[in-house]
Design goal:
Length: 318
């Protein structure tokens, strides 16, 4: 019963082999299918729905060889099967939907929110009490890439919380100086970093080679990720740092990515998302131009660091 209770929750967060969820325990926030974690092997075993793709087994030498699959062996050899209804929940992605969770027994008291569309998901976590744990990811956008190797297919930005071994450079953990609002495919993340902080900025992974097209217009960034599109706006502006950072270094596989950054102790970041099919055109440029026109025609009225923020989206006002 406990296992089925757990898998019932996971099924709603599963998308064609990707586990898209806000998490208080997110050790590798860029993980996906090709760059994957052990738990995904079990989810793939029960839910499938990935075409000819499988979680990358990370073959290496020594005790690490195929370690990725060890956790799934007892599931594969057991005669137990999940109820069919759970599998249907994990595979039914005809309509977008929202899931909400609240864990009263978790000492953080997190309120989790997720929006799952046909080929991407946007998730966030708010209202935690006390300082967030050192491996939390407060919000994340993740999509199913057209090409299996086009990972990391994920976007987030964080205020770095350095630890002794420099783990913040791999985007581990979350900051107590950020908070989010989300409604379906729109997210607003606000930052109020103390003036004494040695890292007065937010940054995140962005490998420009993995996108069909990126355009900048009126201080917004518009990105074409194949089957989905998203837009970014930061009150203090966004820039590529030019550095190459290790985003994933597990099970014998290392992935490097570029870095996008926005400076300042006080900042606000807006993320808008959409399906590519809703803006289908002759080419990526036409689709992204259409998407940009829709986003830019919405009034943007952020009120920073007062009692709240107002922002009109395609769906409703936050």
């Amino acid at each position: 019963m406990a296992f089925e209770w757990y898998m019932a929750g996971v099924a709603a967060e599963y998308l064609h082999g990707y586990w898209i969820t806000p998490s208080a325990r997110d050790y590798v926030p860029v993980h996906g299918m090709h760059l994957s974690e052990e738990s995904l092997a079990t989810l793939w075993l029960y839910f499938g729905d990935t075409g000819n793709r499988i979680p990358h087994p990370h073959p290496t030498s020594g005790h690490e060889a195929f370690r990725h699959w060890y956790c799934a062996i007892h599931m594969a050899t057991s005669d137990y099967r999940l109820p069919e209804a759970f599998v249907n929940i994990a595979r039914d992605r005809v309509q977008p939907y929202v899931f909400k969770e609240f864990f009263d027994k978790n000492p953080m008291n997190p309120a989790e929110y997720g929006f799952i569309n046909k080929n991407y998901g946007l998730t966030s976590m708010v209202s935690e009490s006390g300082n967030p744990p050192p491996d939390m990811t407060r919000w994340k956008l993740q999509w199913v890439p057209v090409e299996a190797e086009s990972e990391p297919s994920v976007f987030f930005m964080k205020h770095p919380m350095p630890n002794e071994d420099g783990g913040w450079k791999n985007w581990e953990g979350a900051s107590p100086y950020e908070q989010v609002y989300q409604h379906e495919g729109t997210l607003i993340s606000m930052y109020k970093i103390p003036g004494t902080d040695t890292h007065p900025f937010i940054d995140g992974p962005l490998d420009t080679t993995l996108f069909e097209l990126i355009i900048n217009r009126d201080n917004w960034w518009f990105l074409h990720a194949g089957k989905m599109l998203f837009a970014l706006y930061a009150e203090n502006g966004l820039r590529l740092t030019g550095e190459e950072r290790i985003a994933y270094d597990h099970f014998g596989t290392t992935a490097l990515t570029g870095v996008i950054r926005s400076d300042g102790n006080k900042n606000i970041l807006i993320v808008e998302t959409a399906l590519q099919e809703d803006f289908e055109g002759a080419d990526a440029r036409e689709e992204l131009d259409h998407f940009a026109e829709v986003v830019l025609n919405n009034p943007v009225c952020p009120i920073l660091f007062t009692s709240g923020a107002s922002y009109a989206t395609n769906a409703k006002e936050l």
